[in-house]
Amino acid sequence: MKRTIRDLKNIKGKKILLRCDFNVPLDHWGDILNDNRIFQELPTLQYLTEQGARVIVCSHLGRPKGYDKFLSLFPVAVYLMKYFPNKVKFIGKVVGKEVEKAANELKDGEILVIENLRFCEGEEKNDPKFVAELGKLADIYVNDAFGTTHRKHASTYGVALKKPNAIGFLIEKELKAFDTAFQKTDKPFVVMLGGAKVSDKIALLENCVEKADTIIIGGGMAYTFLQALGQNIGDSIVSLDMIDDAQRILQKAKENNVKVVLPVDHIALLQNGKVIKTTELSAGMTALDIGPKTIKLFQKEIASAKRIMWNGPLGKYEDPRFRKGTMKMVKAVAKSGAYSVVGGGDSVSAVQASGYADKINHLSTGGGASLKLMEGKVLPAIEVIDTL
Ligand code: ADP
Ligand code: MG
């Protein structure tokens, strides 16, 4: 068990460096287009400030090369001011004397938001000098930035090694959700995978073929599997260099008694721009969504599931013509009554757009980090936190 903020005693008056994932989409006016990541961080901020800690909030935002006024964390500080009136301060610098002074001037229960960590070169390089400068800002380090736990950066890794440390409520919640999905014993455990590229998901498949009872494969990655089974996939997306891997996974599934469910019909785009339903694919057809028979087939598996883990849309859901399969699956998962966890940037957006988000047990806030957990890998920024 990792130490959490609940295990930190006597934090009143202590300076806590809280690494958040406030990497939110902004428009050119600095308006936050999706506030989910900030919203999810409120419980940790609430707790720490109520305990009288002095919280120094840090995060990255986008991929700046040096200072970039469009990637300032100022809009995030303004957002936080709504929830913590008169308690939030902002400083337009990341480290240095002025920031140390501002941190030292904080009163109990106040929050100081510092500038985008990635304005400093040392952040992504985990540069010891930058780690030391960050370390000077606080007595204790807390990581709650689940979305960057797969990265060994100064603010996620280096500084954790130098300070008494803990994870926040969001990371705790994320870890618990994936643990529950993997470790509960009620069956069947259904893993549903989609998305475009098999190469992105091969490590995940390797892990799930050991743990799942059923693996549903839809989306673009299904066509590499169908090709591996000798079917004609027309012009659908395929990773020819992954055919061997697909065959190996299918073989492994057979040995482990894992049921693999693949599409039996498709919604395909023709060269003349027409969209058709078909069970047979041939040259000139690009399958971009699962067809009605497949929807029924997948729904049946999902309806009987006790645990569901899902990553990857089942079609090119960004295009309304190919959204139906993904949306039907969101509904099926929502109605299944199974313990459900969804991870992956696109998958989570699809669920959020569906209106069923509150019926899913856990929507992960981390894209890459959630994939790593589904792969059964250890996240370096979590590994580095002390255990109890
Ligand atoms: P996540 O972000 O949830 O991990 P991915 O990034 O792996 O998901 O996959 C999402 C992408 O997969 C989307 O851009 C979607 O258009 C694409 N995709 C899904 N099905 C197909 C398909 N049949 N053909 C091509 N692309 C597809
Ligand atoms: Mg994606």
Secondary structure layout plus pairing:
Blueprint: E1 15-19, H1 36-39, H2 42-50, E2 54-58, H3 74-83, E3 88-90, H4 97-104, E4 111-113, H5 122-125, H6 128-135, E5 140-143, H7 154-158, E6 165-167, H8 169-183, E7 189-193, H9 198-211, E8 214-217, H10 222-228, H11 243-255, E9 259-261, E10 266-270, E11 275-278, E12 285-290, H12 292-303, E13 307-311, H13 324-336, E14 339-343, H14 345-354, E15 362-363, H15 368-374, H16 380-383
Parallel strand pairs: 1-2, 1-5, 2-4, 3-4, 5-6, 7-8, 7-13, 8-9, 13-14, 14-15
Antiparallel strand pairs: 10-11, 10-12
Strand order of the largest sheet: 3-4-2-1-5-6
Q: What is the overall shape?
A: elongated
Secondary structure class reads alpha/beta
- Major sheet attributes: 6 strands, parallel
Structure description:
The protein is α/β, with parallel strands linked by helices and 388 residues long. The chain folds into two domains: 168 residues, Phosphoglycerate kinase, N-terminal domain (Rossmann fold, 3-Layer(aba) Sandwich), CATH 3.40.50.1260; 191 residues, Phosphoglycerate kinase, N-terminal domain (Rossmann fold). 37% of the residues lie in helices and 16% in strands. It is elongated and about 70 Å long. The mean pLDDT is 96. The structure holds adenosine-5'-diphosphate and magnesium ion.
